[in-house]
Amino acid sequence: MNNPRLTGIAARGLWLDWLERERRASRHTLAAYGADLADFLGFLTRHLGAEPDLAALQALRPADLRSFMAERATRDGVSAATRARQLAAIRGFLRFLARHHGLQPLALAGLRGPKVTPPAPRPLTPDQARDVIEEAGSVENSSLLALRDTALFTLLYGCGLRISEALDLNVGQAPRAGIGLKVRGKGDKQRLVPVLPAVERAVSAYLAARGHPPPEQPLFLGARGGRLDAGMAQRALRTYRRLAGLPESATPHALRHSFATHLLGAGGDLRSIQELLGHASLSTTQRYTSVDSAKLLETWQKAHPRAG
Questions:
Q1: What residue ranges of the chain have pLDDT lower than 50?
Q2: Whole-model pTM over 0.70
Q3: Whether 279 is catalytic
């Protein structure tokens, strides 16, 4: 084992640097995995009575990881989905140490994570999505911010982008109808998404109000002039949905769900929708079929004379 006295905190820093440099992990992934490892190392400090080093990590057994997962579930009330992500972070961390520092990750032998059933997407109806695009900007206190919100929400619904993908764009990457939009998604994978004229018009109107900024500037700006934060976009939509009486599920990400569900309902095939969304696995995209089937059953039960 290389440098058995290397502390767990220092090893965590090396792993996160490697993820950013070699795997091109997004800042959101780095923040989540960094927090997961901090939780785990804090648990080990309490569990072992001292801050763990590589020698202590080498000595871990599956029971130690099970104790951590049990504590997160019982004491902290963490969901199965979060615990599964934390276990994935720990696995990645220990495998990194095995590959680069000679650690033997015995603690991973035969260890299974919590069973997670992904929740079905909760899309908006077409009318609700249209209302968000046309009206959500009205909650802002300036016409520029209203144009920004309209452009952002039109882009999310019209192209099926994740909020992080939209906010990472610069002015030089503004969507153009007929050309398509290059999007860098999870795992640094690129995809080309078609652009509707309505999306181009909404974004162009916002950029015109900004005086046609240079291509290196962020496409969406916050009120203070920096790149727009996802939390601010979520807050704007949260304010609007309360005023409009929309469900709590009406979030920026729900616009992406709505894009996929409405495409499927209009006859789009799963493989094409998978490519547009940037899903690595078709099974992820298949969640939308359950939404569409449920909607079809609801319509049938309302309309069929023998349904009752």
A1: 291-308
A2: no
A3: yes
